[in-house]
């Protein structure tokens, strides 16, 4: 029988100590009974959950492979209180949903990342910050940046990384937060012993062979872009500013064995426009677009730029060097999607229509190191986002990549063979929406498909969520296991697999 502990916490100390049940939301009444505004990003499965749950021996359809040992973690926004202003999906407080696999069984827990902002709002009993979709005053933004602060609340809601024995919850306009495993308690802000002097990207890249982690940090104020290398022990060994033409939104990047691959794309910061009610980030095709190849341990002035067609990329699959060329694979949009600048006024139809005009597809850029030329080509015409692959080959020749492809009501997992294109598809079912899918390697496995693909799937018909496990050797087959979760998992952002050996 499933054993479920519904834990309700007060703000607590940094150690995340449990307090008396009922103190957080009084069984969710405090949050649930409060009137929440009508908002696309607070409706259906975007809506937050209000309890922190621990559940063991989850019911399983199929069979969990007994050798599958580790924890699948997914970060995402989950506002603690009804928001101020024009709520945007990016604004919610970070919440981690985790499924632990061991001995053919599965358990679940979800925990808020108890940031300083989360604790202040919890103490006040209400939201205190506005968000990305609200106008900002330039003088306020400038003053905060000069003080080394972000103009927005650090929600730690975007992604996760495991490096030098630490689990970090990431939010790219500030420092990460360290979490403890296996309980997901929040320890606090983490700045690598004070050695990291800039905001840390939500998408760091780890070279599995060297153990180095490469990170970037962007800002609307100079220096617009900084780059650091962190060794396998967590020591920051190298930092350099990287010259870019204007401050741009640079959400992701890539690495190869020799280079860090940067994307200067025309999603330009415009705080003046935001102060007049416009967009804080706007697409300016006249700015141009280019790919920069920076030697891993080089200084910013050593970067080599390759001009490309104007576009926007949220997420990169991978990059690698081959035959004197650098090959970059990413989900390319023709422009910056205006749908992400909307919130309260957007509808399902609006969101689908606007996003379709900016529909991402899997794309390949080939930078010729000898001639300086770039070849650009789509691998497919299917909608493709949340790209993942076997993290052990980051920056090296990759055979397989995986993306989520979706319409407003259903989603599929697509498998690409690089550089050929799409080869296989797993359809999750009508009315079933999947999130980012991670690859969990089989113990002693030697190939990129010798393992499992794991994701959360929301079923609109019964308003419930599952954790789904697919054998990567044949993604067209039915899942090997479908694990019923004790509560709904709202749509979120990025996921991580942590091997059981470190738990």
- pLDDT below 50 for ≥5 consecutive residues: which ranges? 1-30
- Biggest sheet: strands side by side, in what order? 1-2-6-5-4-34
Structural class: mainly beta
Indicate the CATH topology.
Answer: Methylamine Dehydrogenase, Chain H
- Overall pLDDT confidence: 88
The CATH superfamily is known as YVTN repeat-like/Quinoprotein amine dehydrogenase
Q: Which architecture does the CATH hierarchy give at level 2?
A: 7 Propeller
The CATH class is Mainly Beta
GO molecular function: carotenoid dioxygenase activity; metal ion binding
Enzyme class: oxidoreductase
EC number: 1.13.11.-
Protein name: Carotenoid cleavage oxygenase
Plain-language structure description:
By secondary structure, the chain is mainly β. It has 5 helices and 34 strands. The protein has helices at residues 29-32, 116-124, 138-146, 271-275, 348-357; strands spanning 3-7, 52-56, 60-62, 70-77, 94-102, 105-112, 159-163, 166-170, 177-180, 185-189, 205-206, 213-218, 225-230, 236-241, 254-255, 259-264, 267-269, 281-283, 289-295, 304-308, 312-322, 325-333, 361-368, 374-378, 385-388, 400-406, 411-417, 421-427, 432-434, 438-441, 451-459, 464-471, 481-484, 495-499. The strands form 8 sheets. A 6-stranded antiparallel β-sheet has the order 1-2-6-5-4-34, with no helix packed on it. It is globular. The protein starts with a strand and ends with a strand.
């Amino acid at each position: 029988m499933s054993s479920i502990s519904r834990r309700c916490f007060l703000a607590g100390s940094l150690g995340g100590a449990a307090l008396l049940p009922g103190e957080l939301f009084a069984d969710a009444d405090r949050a649930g009974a409060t009137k929440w505004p009508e908002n696309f990003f607070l409706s259906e499965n975007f809506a937050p959950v209000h309890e922190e749950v621990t559940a063991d021996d989850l019911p399983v359809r199929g069979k969990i492979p007994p050798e599958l040992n580790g924890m699948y973690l997914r970060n995402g926004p989950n506002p603690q209180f009804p928001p101020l202003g024009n709520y945007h999906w990016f604004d919610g407080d970070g919440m981690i949903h985790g499924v632990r696999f061991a001995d053919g069984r599965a358990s679940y827990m979800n925990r808020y990342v108890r940031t300083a902002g989360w604790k202040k709002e919890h103490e006040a009993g209400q939201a205190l910050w506005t968000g990305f979709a609200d106008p900002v005053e330039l003088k306020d933004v400038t003053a905060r940046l000069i003080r080394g602060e972000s103009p927005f609340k650090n929600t730690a809601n975007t992604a996760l990384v495991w490096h030098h024995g630490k689990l970090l919850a990431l939010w790219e306009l500030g420092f990460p937060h360290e979490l403890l495993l296996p309980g997901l308690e929040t320890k606090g802000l983490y700045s690598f012993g004070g050695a990291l002097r800039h905001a840390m990207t939500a998408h760091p890249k780890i070279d599995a062979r060297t153990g180095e982690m490469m990170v970037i940090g962007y800002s609307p104020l100079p220096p617009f872009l900084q780059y650091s290398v962190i060794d396998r022990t967590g020591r920051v060994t190298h930092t350099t500013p990287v010259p870019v033409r204007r401050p741009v939104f640079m959400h992701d990047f890539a690495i190869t064995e020799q280079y860090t691959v940067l994307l200067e794309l025309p999603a330009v910061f415009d705080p003046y426009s935001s102060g007049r009610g416009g967009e804080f980030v706007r697409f300016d095709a006249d700015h141009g677009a280019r790919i920069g190849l920076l030697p891993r341990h080089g200084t910013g002035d050593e970067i080599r730029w390759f001009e490309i067609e104007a576009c926007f990329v949220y997420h990169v699959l991978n990059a690698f060097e081959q035959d004197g060329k650098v090959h970059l694979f990413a989900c390319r949009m023709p422009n910056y999607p205006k749908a992400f600048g909307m919130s309260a006024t957007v509808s399902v139809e609006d969101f689908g229509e606007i996003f379709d005009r900016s529909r991402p597809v899997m794309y390949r850029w080939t930078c010729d190191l000898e001639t300086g030329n770039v070849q650009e080509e789509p691998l497919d015409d299917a909608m493709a986002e949340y790209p993942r692959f076997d993290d052990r080959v980051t920056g090296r020749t990759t055979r397989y990549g995986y993306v989520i492809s979706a319409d407003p009501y259903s989603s599929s997992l697509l498998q690409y063979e690089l550089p050929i294109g799409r080869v296989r598809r797993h359809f999750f079912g009508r009315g079933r929406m999947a999130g980012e899918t991670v690859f969990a390697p089989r113990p002693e496995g030697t190939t990129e498909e010798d393992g499992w693909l794991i994701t959360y799937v929301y079923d609109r018909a019964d308003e419930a969520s599952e954790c789904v496990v697919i054998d990567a050797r044949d993604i067209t087959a039915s899942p090997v296991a479908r694990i019923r979760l004790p509560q709904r998992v709202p749509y979120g952002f990025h996921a991580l697999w942590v091997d059981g050996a470190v738990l």
